[in-house]
What does this fold into?
Amino acid sequence: MKLWRLTRAPFVALDGKGAELHGARYAPTGLPVVSLASEAGLAVLVALRYHLPDLAAAPADLVFGWTEVDAAAERIDHADEDVVRSKIGDWLDSRRTLLAAIRSRVLPEADVIYLNPRHPDAAKASPLVTRPFDFAECLHRPPMLDRFRSMP
It folds into this structure.
């Protein structure tokens, strides 16, 4: 399974240290977990929605990357976010699967994928293959926009 991540260069390791210190949307503080996306576009949308309300202040060391993980994700379904958080806490503690999939609320056709770095197979996950990422490059005003808007 190809999984995607948009992060800062110092945090490309799939060790879950950031979430362990600060928590994640569906994971409690104190447990390591790596947040990934099932689709490349979802990784960008999540960053836009949650992490970068002021794109001019975006860190200069952003990297966009992917990894290949040979594992099926356990589906965590529920409409109530508190129930999802509880289920994710149980999933992390149990270490029963490497990956958990939660339907994205940003793009419901895709999944947020959590990787449990304490699972025995976590060491088999390939490191992120990354490239520099700049929101200004992908969200700039398209040169043809004015021309298309002026067409009848």
